[in-house]
Design goal:
The complex is a heterodimer of chains A (677) and B (95). Chain A is mostly helical and 677 residues long. Among the domains of chain A are: 84 residues; 112 residues, no CATH class. Chain A contains 27 helices and two strands. In chain A, strands 1-2 form a two-stranded antiparallel sheet. Chain B is mainly α and 95 residues long. In chain B, strands 1-2 form a two-stranded antiparallel sheet. Classes of the chains: A mainly alpha (677), B mainly alpha (95).
Chain lengths: 677, 95
């Protein structure tokens, strides 16, 4: 390893040059935009150029060496592994969604910020150094070795595939959204562009190629995330460090909120929405007659307009209304209930941004607090149990480097998560102070162009021509993209943000795909079905699995599975309950044995899945069956506890693990203990 | 996988045990700090929010930034502490 420092310096030089070239290129595009380069072109240049960069790195890193393919040859320096882990970790949801979540949820959203960073403390203290010392290829590998045999390995493979697959579908879906909304190509084509982008990184070079593209992707995504809000911060406060300055803005926002919430026009609008909600409740109660009445009334209106010789535009509007009438009473119930819910939500003003655990009464407040704590817990444990993150720590040259690389990972992740609340606060401040209360006719032009794609809706219910807060709705995913517009930045910055979101989605998808394909090819095929397989055969199997999984994931994503995307949140609970107790006890408690681990993993995962089905409306469950009013997203709270208890009890009831397993535990605990494989 | 741990090296085993105990102590202390930074700001958010810290209500600051800085410090201290333990007990990293 004498070449390690030289290797490190060379990498540093390459990535520095790369980052400078990228920044210079963005500058060039900005100049070109001044000379009339159209937004559509800017978006497409960003898309294809960044994918071309990743492809180039992917091709340069191609390999047919097993250790290179699975764990990048175990020579990734701590700093670079930190960047790669950060890119692996921060998904489309973190990059695009988090700012919006924080915008709407205020303090409650901070559970994600604390949870998704604090999990790395557990990774550092309880897992990474020991897994690195163990030094195999996958997480099921560890379970198989520590808990003697295929049973634990199979459970591990199942949980890894379950948690990772939904997650990877969400990433590809994210790519489709980004490309369709901001680059102007169709969603389905966007999905397959994403698929290509993922495969060029991972197919030829496995972990090695994914590692070096992830470093490149991290640099793009972090530049893209920090630049717009820094400029907005400079415009609002005069200091381009939003993470430091948003405290002041949050204070001003609190004052502005009180002012807005007590404004008479706002109150009037909220009463109108109450009226609309009541009207729809009546209509729903009177189904199916109300649907017939509504259709008749609209037919009559359209006929009247035609006979009176009204303008073509008026007739078209009436006809569109008629077309949009629900076809069946069932459809009407669903559609009208959505309107009723939406109106109801607008009858109350949102809680003040900084208010912790808001609720109507003390019970609701306590409930919100318990859920906040439970969510923080699950996100942390889940972070420390997601296989695609843990395998990254197999790739460092030594135990010490693994430890240090968790530090770098956390630092690089911190940069984004500490900025997300600032995004929310700055965006909210601008919306509340300059958008709300202005004339709808004179709103900036982006409001109209976003309105056309459905990201912003304005509904002047009191017809006063002035925008009230309750009349405005902004898609949660759009908050991040709002910031460049609010700061009045040229389109090139929006293109940069889209490229950042793309980098976040692609890098996470790559890590997940590798995890799935390695679990299937290495653990299932090589370790269990055909241990005699040659190296070449193993790589062929791995690559074909990768291809199949990627295509299936892209196909699922192209079906636009809106209603399964919530499962991403559930992946944390599933991974937490399945892996965390078995991994941690496997290292810290020699007495934990095969039977304990297998029953504990199954019980933990079982309880988690059971609770989700019991309480989530998607599966026909209801929150009235909840335990302690904990939301399904935090179901891992129960799963993890059950997992620990079951492993402990069953292990104590069955014989202790044999000496060679105990020696394995000693081996992973001691960085210098030698072993003969 | 056949472990070839040399049973005759009692001295080495005592050293390993002492190293592991020290590791557990360090890990335990840092985990306590972690648990405090993770869950206390959320639990006492209302109380903390009555204090203003550079414009932020303190509860909001902790959950959005303060705890994160503590996490980074924990991981950094752990690395430092483990390097010291390895030196003290003569444990050499295989890399």
């Amino acid at each position: 390893m004498s070449s390690q420092p030289a290797f490190f310096r060379r990498l540093g030089r390459y990535y520095l040059i790369y980052a400078l070239v990228f920044v210079g290129f963005v500058g060039l595009l900005a100049v070109a935009e001044q000379f009339g380069l159209s937004p559509r072109w800017i978006g497409q240049i960003f898309l294809f150029l960044t994918i071309a960069i990743y492809a180039a790195i992917g091709v340069m890193s191609r390999t047919s060496d097993v250790s290179e393919y699975y764990v990048a040859g175990r020579r990734v320096p701590a700093l670079f592994n930190g960047m790669a882990t950060a890119a692996d970790w921060m998904s489309a949801a973190s990059f695009i969604g988090l700012a919006g979540t924080l915008y709407y949820a205020g303090f409650e959203g901070l559970a994600f910020v604390t949870g998704w960073t604090g999990g790395y403390v557990l990774v550092a203290l309880l897992l990474a150094p020991f897994l690195r010392k163990f030094g195999q290829f996958t997480i099921p590998d560890f379970l198989g070795a520590r808990y003697e045999g295929h049973f634990a390995r199979v459970v591990g493979v199942f949980a890894a595939v379950l948690a990772s697959f939904v997650y990877v579908v969400a990433q590809i879906y994210g790519v489709g959204l980004i490309t369709s909304r901001f680059i102007g190509i169709e969603f389905e084509i966007g999905v397959f562009v994403g698929l290509a982008g993922i495969l060029v990184c991972s197919f030829l070079g496995g972990m090695r190629a994914v590692t070096w593209t992830q470093v490149a992707q991290y640099l793009i995504l972090i530049i893209a995330y920090l630049v717009p809000v820094a400029i907005l911060s400079y415009k609002v406060t005069g200091v381009p460090v939003p993470q430091v300055m948003y405290g002041q803005v949050l204070h001003d926002l609190g004052v502005k909120e009180l002012e807005l919430f007590s404004e008479p026009r706002e109150s009037a609008v909220r009463i109108l929405y109450q009226g609309r909600a009541d009207e729809y409740a009546r209509k729903i109660a009177a189904l199916p007659e109300s649907l017939t009445t509504e259709r008749l009334a609209l037919v009559q209106k359209a006929n009247e307009l035609r006979s009176q010789g009204a303008s073509a535009r008026e007739i078209a509007v009436a006809e569109r209304l008629l077309r949009d009438v629900p076809r069946t009473p069932d459809e009407a119930r669903v559609k009208w209930d959505r309107v009723r819910q939406d109106s109801l939500a607008r009858t109350v003003h949102p809680p003040p941004h900084a208010e912790a655990h808001p609720g109507a009464d003390q019970a609701a407040r306590d409930n919100a607090r318990n859920n906040f704590i439970a969510l923080v817990f699950v996100l942390m444990i889940g972070t420390a149990a997601l296989p695609h993150i843990l395998t990254r720590y197999y790739t460092t040259p030594s135990v010490r480097e693994a430890r240090r690389s968790v530090f770098w990972s956390l630092l690089f992740i911190f940069l984004l998560y500490v900025t997300a609340p600032a995004y929310a606060v700055f965006a909210k401040w601008e919306v509340y102070s300059s958008l709300v209360g202005s004339h709808i006719e004179t709103l900036p032009h982006w409001v109209a162009s976003w309105g056309r794609v459905g990201l912003v809706k304005i509904d002047d219910i009191n017809r006063d021509g002035i925008l009230q807060l309750a009349e405005l709705s902004i898609n949660s995913d759009a908050i991040l993209l709002l910031v460049p517009e609010l700061a009045g930045l040229p389109y090139v910055v929006s293109g940069l943000v889209a490229a950042g979101g793309l980098a976040a989605a692609l890098s996470t998808a790559d890590g997940l795909l590798l995890t799935i394909s390695h679990a299937l090819s290495h653990d299932l095929y090589y370790k269990m079905i055909n241990p005699e397989a040659s190296t070449q055969r193993r790589l062929v199997i791995t690559k074909s699995q990768l291809l199949v999984v990627a295509v299936v994931a892209a196909w699922v994503a192209s079906l636009r599975p809106d209603n399964i995307l919530f499962m991403v949140g559930l992946a944390f609970s599933i991974a937490a309950a399945a892996f965390f107790p078995a991994l941690v006890l496997g290292i810290f408690w020699k007495r934990a044995n095969k039977w304990g681990a297998v029953t504990g993993m199954i019980a933990g995962m079982g309880v988690t899945l059971f609770y989700i089905v019991r309480t989530h409306p998607f599966f026909g469950g209801s929150m009235s069956d909840a335990w302690l009013d904990i939301h399904p997203i935090s179901s891992g709270v129960f799963g993890v506890s059950v997992g620990f208890v079951v492993i402990a009890v069953v292990s104590l009831l069955t014989p202790p693990p044999p000496p060679e397993v105990q020696a394995l535990v000693d081996y992973v605990r001691m960085p210098d203990r030698p072993v003969k494989h | 996988m056949s472990q070839n741990v040399n049973g005759s090296q009692d001295e080495g085993d005592a050293r390993s045990r002492a190293y592991w105990r020290a590791t557990l102590r360090l890990t335990g202390v840092l985990l306590l700090v972690w648990a405090g930074a993770s869950f206390l700001p959320g639990w006492f958010a209302d109380e903390l929010n009555t204090v203003v810290f550079f414009g932020w209500p303190l509860g909001f600051y902790m959950a959005g930034q303060g705890s994160l800085i503590i996490f980074i410090c924990i991981v950094w201290l752990y690395d430092r502490g483990m390097v010291r333990l390895e030196k003290r007990y003569g444990v050499k990293d295989e890399g």
